Amino acid sequence: MNSPGCDRACGREWAELSSAQRRVVAGAAVVQATLAATAWWDLAHRPADQVRGPKAVWAAVIAVNFAGPLAYFGWGRRPRTSAARTFASSVIHRRAPHSE
Q: Among 13, 62, 75, 84, which has the minimal tally of Cβ within 10 Å of its Cβ?
C-alpha cells in the first residue's frame, strides 16, 4: 500500500503507466544502455595507462545507472597523449594542396 506522501507513480506496475509514461521510461532505459555500452567499449579499447585507477573498478562503476558512465567519461579517462592529439589534429585539419 502506498504511503500518503507518495506521488502517483510510487509503486505502480508497468501496466498501470500511461503510454506517455512508458515512452519516458523506455527512452531513459535506451539512454542508460547507450551510455553504459559506449563507456564499456571505450574502457575495453583504452590502454590502462590512459585510465585513472583499475579498469576492473571502472567496469563495475559504469554499471551504476547514469552516474557510472558519466563518472567514467568525466573522471575516469586521462587526457590523450600529445602524439595522439597531433595525429588526430593532422587528420582533421589536413590542408588541400594549393593550386596557383
A: 13
